[in-house]
């Protein structure tokens, strides 16, 4: 894979896989997925991910056995169990079998990202460094941990949605992004309106950024928007 930290998501519920994959990609991770224990072991051997987000209940076995097998085979991958089984015994078992963390469903996506990042820092310091919380494009700097944006060293006050929109654009510089792609990445499963909201928020974001410098967000009519260096 690329220099991005990599995550293998193992779950047989497609809606969970899609949601977790979307969130982790948004936060800068390269993502692969598996729906069974057997596929998880094949993927882990082939791709050597930094982190495995692992369900306990799988169609052909359980996540505990996957974890035991990975450890027995010498894989030092970070393992975060993500499961509906919330008993203390299950948590103790998961950690005893070699898991690094245990998160129960339903879960907060923000907590999941924080847990994955914490495990990544412990098991792959170099990979964690590669996923720096600071994004830079031209004279725009976005600090994900501090939730701050600066342009030319000056603070740009953004709403949470404007911040998410800018982060997505900065994660995909010089790439034309459609309204649909932006809706999926920024509003994801919580939005039921129309794509006009994208135009509205791009307008808000443009005005705030352009108070401190030349335009960096361009419109490609009929296609979408692109973050590109000032001309």
Automatic annotation (TrEMBL):
Taxonomically, the superkingdom here is Bacteria
Is the Heme keyword given for this protein? no
Q: One biological-process term from Gene Ontology?
A: regulation of DNA-templated transcription
| Start and end residues of each OmpR/PhoB-type domain | 132-229
**Record flagged with keyword Phosphoprotein:** yes
Q: Which UniProt keywords apply?
A: DNA-binding, Phosphoprotein, Transcription, Transcription regulation, Two-component regulatory system
- Provide a GO CC annotation, any one: protein-DNA complex
Give the molecular function GO annotations. Answer: phosphorelay response regulator activity; transcription cis-regulatory region binding
Which SMART domains does the entry link to?
REC, Trans_reg_C
Instruction: Note one Pfam family from the annotation.
Output: Trans_reg_C
Matching Gene3D superfamilies = 3.40.50.2300, 6.10.250.690, Winged helix-like DNA-binding domain superfamily/Winged helix DNA-binding domain (1.10.10.10)
Which InterPro entries has this protein been placed in?
CheY-like_superfamily (IPR011006), OmpR/PhoB-type_DNA-bd (IPR001867), Sig_transdc_resp-reg_C-effctor (IPR016032), Sig_transdc_resp-reg_receiver (IPR001789), WalR-like (IPR039420), WH-like_DNA-bd_sf (IPR036388)
Q: Matching CDD domains, A to Z?
A: trans_reg_C (cd00383)
Residue positions of the PTM 4-aspartylphosphate?
Answer: 55
The record places the DNA-binding region at 132-229
**What residues does the Response regulatory domain cover?**
6-120
The name of this protein is Two-component system, OmpR family, response regulator
Organism, per UniProt? Cryptosporangium aurantiacum
Query: Which lineage do the record's taxonomy fields give for this organism?
Result: Bacteria, Bacillati, Actinomycetota, Actinomycetes, Cryptosporangiales
